């Protein structure tokens, strides 16, 4: 599909595309040269985006913003023009929040996902649980399509104790609740693969992708791994290497970068 030997896919929660651009995110994306990059938390409407965001040189750009201003929203940039683009997961309330955007190529699909956070209030946690309930059957249906696929995004769940610094103190907090972690395990039991964890089973602090803005959490690396690339087994088996980029800071999240074998029949070193 692509002209080089690697299929580089990046997931990045921007915490505001305009803010991230001011901090150098676009320049870094150009240097990283992904084939596809999935954005979450645009915090912008289409009218807020600059011409360079709407029609970036060398990429086809697609966005699903939230109806509410300054909130949520997802996007995808693709070097190759996709055969199809679709938005939403079939629920009016969540679709209005701009949480699901999919592109289909000839031999695989990429989804940008922004799963709700429940940390703001008990009501938002209830919304998060409702999203999880709705999304699990959708994940089953996606697998049943029989095509290779990767879901890139901010899942707002740290799956295992290794995935956050202070796991003992967060067992009753949104993002590390037993019900959320059990849901994540059920999702993987369907057949989906946590690609980064498959490649780096022992990675702890180096794998964190999000840090609170409080108490110098980033400086002390008191973080969480809540950004994932969750793939079908065939695509996951093509993973070659990955890393979390932390040299520059564009957001309260760091970009998750994974390289896959470009050839659909290729085998990655992580297999």
Overview of the structural elements:
The structure is a single chain. It contains eight helices and 14 strands. The longest helix has 23 residues, at 122-144. Helix 5 packs parallel to helix 6. With 271 residues, it is of the alpha+beta class. The strands form three sheets. It has a six-stranded mixed sheet with strand order 3-4-2-1-14-13.
Taking all Cα atoms into account, the compactness measure Rg is: 17 Å
The poorly predicted ranges are none
In one word, what is the shape? Answer: globular
CATH superfamily: Endonuclease/exonuclease/phosphatase
The top level CATH class name = Alpha Beta
Number of helices: 8
Q: Roughly how much helix do the residues carry, as a percent range?
A: 10-25%
Mean pLDDT across residues: 95
Question: End-to-end span in angstroms?
Answer: 21 Å
How many DSSP-defined strands?
A: 14
The appropriate CATH architecture is 4-Layer Sandwich
Q: Which topology does CATH recognise? A: Deoxyribonuclease I, Chain A
Largest beta sheet: strand ordering: 3-4-2-1-14-13
| Helical/strand content category | alpha+beta
Number of domains: 1
How much of the polypeptide forms β-strand, as a percent range? 25-35%
State the order of secondary-structure elements, H for helix, E for strand. Answer: EHHEHEEEHEEHEHEHEEEHEE
| Largest sheet features | 6 strands, mixed
């Amino acid at each position: 599909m692509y002209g080089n030997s690697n299929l580089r896919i990046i997931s990045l929660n921007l915490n505001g595309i305009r803010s991230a651009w001011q901090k150098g995110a676009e320049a870094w994306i150009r240097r990283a040269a992904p084939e596809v990059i999935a954005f979450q938390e645009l915090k912008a409407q289409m009218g807020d985006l600059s011409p360079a965001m709407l029609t970036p040189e060398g990429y086809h750009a697609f966005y699903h913003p939230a109806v509410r201003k300054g909130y949520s929203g997802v996007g995808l940039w693709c070097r190759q023009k996709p055969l199809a683009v679709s938005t939403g997961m079939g629920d009016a309330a969540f679709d209005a929040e701009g949480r699901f955007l999919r592109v289909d190529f000839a031999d695989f699909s990429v989804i940008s996902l922004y799963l709700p956070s429940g940390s703001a209030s008990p009501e938002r946690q209830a919304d998060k649980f409702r999203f999880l309930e709705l999304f699990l059957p959708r994940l089953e249906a996606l697998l049943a399509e029989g095509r290779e696929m990767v879901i890139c995004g901010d899942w707002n769940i740290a799956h295992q104790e290794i995935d956050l610094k202070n796991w003992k103190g967060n067992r009753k907090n949104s993002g590390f609740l037993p019900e959320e972690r059990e849901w994540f395990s059920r999702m993987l039991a369907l057949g989906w693969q946590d690609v980064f964890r498959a490649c780096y089973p022992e990675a702890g602090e180096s794998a964190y992708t999000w840090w609170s803005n409080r108490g110098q959490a980033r400086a002390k690396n008191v973080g969480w791994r809540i950004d994932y690339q969750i793939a079908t087994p065939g695509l996951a088996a093509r993973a070659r290497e990955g890393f979390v980029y932390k040299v520059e800071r564009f957001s309260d999240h760091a970009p998750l970068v994974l390289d896959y074998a470009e050839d659909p029949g290729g085998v990655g070193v992580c297999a």
